[in-house]
Fold these 4 entries.
Entry 1:
Amino acid sequence: MSGPGDDRADERHDHDDLQDLARRHLWMHFTRMARAPELDWPVIASGDGCHVTDTAGRRYLDGLSGLFTSQLGYGRRELAEVAAEQAGRMHYFPLWSHAHPPAIELAARLAGLAPGDLNRVFLTVSGSESVESALKLARQFHRANGEPGRYKVISRVGSYHGTTMGALAITGLAQFREPFEPLPSGFLKVPNCNAFRPAFPGLSGEDLTDALIASVEQQILAEGAHTVAAVFVEPLQNAGGCLPPPTDTYYAKLRAVCDRHGVLLVSDEVICAYGRLGTMFGCERYGYQPDMITTAKGLTSGYSPLGAVLVSDRLMEPFLADPRASFTHGITFGGHPVSCAVALANLDIFEREGVVDHVDRHRHTFRALLEDLRDIPIVGDVRGEGYFWALELVKDQDTRARFDRDEVEPLLRGLVGPRLLELGLIARADDRGDPVLQFAPPLVAGPAELEELAGITRKVLEEASATLR
Ligand SMILES: Cc1ncc(COP(=O)(O)O)c(C=O)c1O
């Protein structure tokens, strides 16, 4: 979408000026800045549908929805107009002891969409804040419920739950945690669902599920159930490369363990909510009922920042029973009126265009297109769900041998990443764990875009395979 603001920017700074200013002033997130002076960053200036264009005029298929966010794609004037209208009417008011119509309407709308008794909605600005809020609510709920000793949190190895200190403590990626240690104590990690490289070698299917669930229960018992507040899981774990549960029974068994020990189950759906897996919420794809769902990103399709924690009635009870009790937590911009109005309009479009059904219908096509890449020698595994998939790259398909650590960097950052961009595809070449290529296109992508994505990927991975031989 290009507007008057973009035109002005184009007049002021041509592509080279922007590159120069970015190199000197912009501190990019999770980005190695040392090499910035030699690089020609894509500076994305406009978009339409599933494609974006940079200031050099290069066009890309956005195979990552920005950052798992742009569910409806680019150029939705309707959402921009709703934002302008709300900003003109009442641009800001907090949710601290007041309310405003868009927040109330959005809370009611989300409660209506959410599974089971998730009828209470706490609005934030981002995914990290949603996770942070759920963590604090879990602790305060137990305290208010007469169990103040329950403060520990269990999450899975290699998982990503955000960057604020609480969310980071839940995150299971050692390299993201280390620079900020010591982190708060009481954050425990259990094996993740990777079935390609299982934490319990030799196990698969139901045996793997049972071993994974037993590891959660053992952790709870080892710590003492009376000290454990919650388990945080993503329906389909992003980091590690789209790790689905090993079997359909995994979440029912996890829910049973949590119930047996009075531990809350939090479904972190910052990526998986709002249609990503072909269901409105990720937990619905796998048929489980969490006590809280943390969301952000796709709630507005990125047209304005917003997060939401969907909370079960049960967790509200102690706060309703005690006239002096309140959840001692708030965020100035949490539930910003402009963002709430955009979220409502976003959900209107979801309904009008049948976006979730569209993903559910085309997810098999997407799977088939990616499965078809298995003949490329470095494609070791293809896994995911809905519009959220990963290819794990291996040195040897038969033995699943990994690339050496010093081979991964030139492969992903030297070869695959830049070549994808050159051929016009934005995807994630991720080296946080075993090397994976990840895709999460806008939910409005149809067969043509999915084929374009798979076609470029084939070309790049075939070239990479040939280079490595
Ligand atoms: C599962 C999950 N939780 C939390 C977050 C943090 O969200 P944010 O970057 O909006 O703070 C992310 C971000 O990608 C995420 O994937």
Entry 2:
Amino acid sequence: MHIIPTLTPAAMSRWIRMTDQGKELVLGSIFCGSCETGLGIRDATGELHPYGDIILYGYCPDCGGKVCRVIGTGETMGRAEEFP
Ligand SMILES: [Zn+2]
């Protein structure tokens, strides 16, 4: 799976610091609450939460239901610089 989400500049600055392995792990483990089987995401967009986490929004590749995933980059990279 190779997905590059559409991210705000602040979120992208953190995304590019994640390892490829870490990205694939995150993107491949997004569970869909609608069909309860879909793992993954398409048409992913994302932004940075003030606490430094990347929040991804997108759609289930199987049923098209909305999915959301918080990536805990705040824990490893600290709070967002633009929200001191
Ligand atoms: Zn689904």
Entry 3:
Amino acid sequence: MDNYDAIVIGAGYGGASLAALLAHGGLRVALLEKTRMAGGKTQTTERLGYRFEMFGAVGIPALNSRFHELVELLGVADEVPFIVPEGNAASIRYKSQGGDWRTLYSPLVQTGSEEEIENLRRVFDASDDDLGAMAAMYEAMFGLDEDALDALDEVGMLDWLAQFYLSEPLTAQICMNLITLFVVPVNRLAASEAIRVMREQAVSGAGRYHIGGFGRVAEACADYVVEKGGLYLNKTRVQRILVEEGRAVGVETDNGQIRATAVISNAGIQPTVLKLAGEENFSAQYIEYIRSLEPSWSIAGFRYILDKRIFDAGLIPIFSNQSWLDDERFARMQSGDWPDVPLIAIDVPTEFDASLSPNPDHQLANCQVFISADPKSNMEAEAIRRAEAVIDELWPDLKDHIIRKEPYGARQISGMSRDSVLPGCGGEAVGLAQVVGQVGKSKPNPRTPLAGLYIVGCDAGGRGAGTHQAVDSGFNVAALVLEDLAGSGS
Ligand SMILES: Cc1cc2nc3c(=O)[nH]c(=O)nc-3n(C[C@H](O)[C@H](O)[C@H](O)COP(=O)(O)OP(=O)(O)OC[C@H]3O[C@@H](n4cnc5c(N)ncnc54)[C@H](O)[C@@H]3O)c2cc1C
């Protein structure tokens, strides 16, 4: 049986970044991943010779991100170049109240130019007063200091927005953006999280891609662990966490046991506590707390390989005033009452990096629509059917150019990330919902009550949107583990 300083369960962006940072800090690390690739929910795989994104594909913020810090610190920036396309890399499709479709081409790093303002007038019928209200909102956002922002951990974003009396179309645009970023009801989305990320988007841009595939940075982190004398095993599922005398001391995999001073799990806080470590190792109060945590929603959709360039931009959100989701609208969708346009987000990785496809004329695209995190929910098929109808209306010739089409939803996401250990959970697109009561001081502590066991990734230790939150957690939890192990003399 081999001994390590730290075992990391899962090579999603939280686990992979943390493992590399611990190796960088001088620890001997074992990184264990149950799937074939590092990257978790944003892993890149191969299909028919294409580099193929399984799920999400863009990073926010585009510039000055935790990802930039990570690759610089590890010295792998040249290995995994980042790209933020210039020009109009986003094209918004908005269905107006009158029923006509309007298109807004936009750069990923906005400048506030006259042209951008004119576009808001044309697409969202924005008057001078509407634009003034939006300017007041951004001014208020940038006027908040850290303490004022922290206080907004307890305020829902829709309530915070209400003070600006934004027009319906501009509200729809802002809420659409927030839902694609956080995948939670916008009424309970913590205003602190929303504002931080909107500020980052405004200053540092709304979309970064990694050349060779979004998962490339996680792959580089796993390689880094090995270069530093550690172990990386893919296709290795951790079955349980070994606990001796009230302390996590290692893990059991399909191929035997590995021991370490610290065990850090990227497998989700609920699966880690309730299944891998076991309820018997925690107080009844902690178990009750863990059971009460709410997941983010999930995403269903389909991945395409197309034999023609159908989509004209890298990021294409599609929505109407009815598309954004709060608790009430989501509950209506669950009961079968869908909006005229379900909120759809299309990522087109080949628009960021043409080298993903062996044929320069072909296009890879991922169409996403928002559903429950419950792997057993029946929303998936209906969401996909409705999204397809909208896409068919907008791009009628798409269906004649499909080389491959793969539908997916909460069940597959759960299979590639966290186990479903509680009713309604498992397929979450992000992790714990970043809603009031679950962020900032109310977010779970990455140090669990079981000595030697930590949580990393979107469930603890970070802030921000999606993978950025996961890597933020990687940095913050690495600092905790290094501090604890230095203190214990390991
Ligand atoms: C369809 C979709 C689109 C998205 N779009 C974007 C986007 O455009 N931009 C963005 O930033 N974010 C996006 N996200 C969100 C983003 O993917 C997640 O927030 C982030 O990847 C979560 O990282 P994580 O480290 O917390 O966990 P995960 O990515 O879930 O990683 C957990 C890892 O642990 C492994 N694991 C679990 N259990 C075990 C076990 N027992 N043994 C061994 N290994 C185990 C899993 O296989 C996985 O690799 C999207 C998500 C989805 C589903």
Entry 4:
Amino acid sequence: MKISFTLNSNATKVDVPPKTTLLKILRNEMGLTGTKAGCEIGSCGACTVIINGEKKKSCIFPADKLEGCDVTTIEGVSAPDNKPNDLQESFLEHGATQCGYCLPGMIMAGEVLLAKNATPSRPEIKEAIADNLCRCIGYIQIVDAIEATAEKRAKGKGAA
Ligand code: FES
Ligand code: FES
């Protein structure tokens, strides 16, 4: 079945086998391995992408429901020169990274939050990443990184 959708701002058409998830399409068919496979049952958030402005777990999103959707993956949020954007830089600056496996999903959850709420409180940031598990680092650094990015963007210093 051919599905047409927008992927990281590019019109995309892909042949979708039956009962395939978006995660499998991204990683296996499109070579976009930035989106991570973790639990693959919708529990860890490692596979989080943005669909029509909302965070979605791609491991449980049926690929045959993609028709007409606007999908953004971690590959689509980098700065124009392919360098890390301001939120990604902030994770580095605040020590909010170790193995990095959770980070693409965390970044996507953070981007959705900041798109909807430019000045989130710390409890709002915690709620936004509550579905995203990290087994390496304290969540404090992650909240710090998102909060600092919100402040920079509010001052017009963001590089998203
Ligand atoms: S891999 Fe999708 S939620 Fe864990
Ligand atoms: S940095 Fe390793 S799981 Fe989060």
